[in-house]
């Protein structure tokens, strides 16, 4: 299966999204080739949710992609500053993605823990993907959330 992850801004997000989505498919026991969209550079929630932008991405990639995943940041998350402080404390800011590469690989290695703690995001997304892969139908976010 070929999966295209569409982030708001791939420059840093790719280092978190790719390993986590790969780990999700590993947990689902579904081999997947996961790619993070790099062109076009979307930059921002309004463009990421723009139907014309998304339509163009799907049109340009539909022949080579089985599943498109739009992933946007939760910028207002209260613990965000703590995560950034931890990156700086570990001196990871000079590596690709400002430390996100290391954190993404750590997250993928600890996927079971992330899955158990991130019901709103990871578990619901996993349920939606699993249902789509196994049954060929796409649950809404609310349906997947209620099914957990």
SS-based structural class?
Answer: mainly alpha
Radius of gyration: 15 Å
Low-confidence region ranges: none
**SSE topology string:** EHEHHEHHHHH
Shape: globular
How much of the sequence is in beta strands? 5-15%
User: Could you give the count of β-strands?
Assistant: 3
Helical run tally: 8
Percent helix range: 55-70%
Main sheet makeup: 3 strands, parallel
N-to-C span: 24 Å
Please tell me about this protein's structure:
With 148 residues, the protein is mainly α. It has two domains: 2-117, no CATH class; 119-148. The chain contains eight helices and three strands; from the N terminus they run E-H-E-H-H-E-H-H-H-H-H. Strands 2-1-3 form a three-stranded parallel beta sheet, with helices on one face. Helix 1 (10-27) packs parallel to helix 5 (100-109) and helix 7 (119-135) crosses helix 8 (141-147). The radius of gyration is 15 Å and the shape is globular.
List keywords for this structure.
three-stranded parallel sheet; 2 domains; 3 strands; mainly alpha; 148 residues; globular; 8 helices
Topology diagram in text:
Elements: E1 2-7, H1 10-27, E2 33-36, H2 45-48, H3 51-61, E3 67-71, H4 80-89, H5 100-109, H6 111-117, H7 119-135, H8 141-147
Parallel strand pairs: 1-2, 1-3
